[in-house]
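User: structure tokens for this one?
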Amino acid sequence: MQKTRINLLPWRDTQRKEREIRFVIITGLALAFVGAIVFSVHLYMADKIAYQQSRNDYLKSEIKKAEAKIKKIEKLQDKKRRLVERMNVIQELEESRSHVVHLLDELVKHIPDGVYLKRMTQKKNKITLEGVAQSDARVSSLMSNLDKSPWFTNPKIYLIQTSTKTQSNHRKRSESSFRLEITLTTPKKDKSK
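Assistant:
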């Protein structure tokens, strides 16, 4: 004979408990799955951050190296600039070396008789001549002669004083003290030579 089993417990309570157990299991599995995903994303992001940080560190070290090279280049450029300035000064001195010879040669050629220079000063290309002439006409002749020279331009008279002096033989002689300024120029070279 077969025994009949009768469940005296309410069937709805059992069903509810089974659903609660299934819910807890599914919720646990879902939380575990979400936790695994969050943990994987966290590891992935941590790896990317570490990789980017290593790239940043590498770039910082390269920037420091580049800055050091830039400083060296700036020092070299400064040194080059100073050397170029020195070379230019030396070149100017070399070019102007012959100017003194031409200046004196041209002055000797263009000073008329009866004119005597006492002082000559030069500031850059301006030359001031101070001297004595037997007359104002000789000073005028000097200025005209200097104006004709290719080495001088713009003769300007700043002072002429005429004075009378008595010589040892009791004759009176007049003389003119003068101060004039001229500009020293370099004549253009003849390209046909």
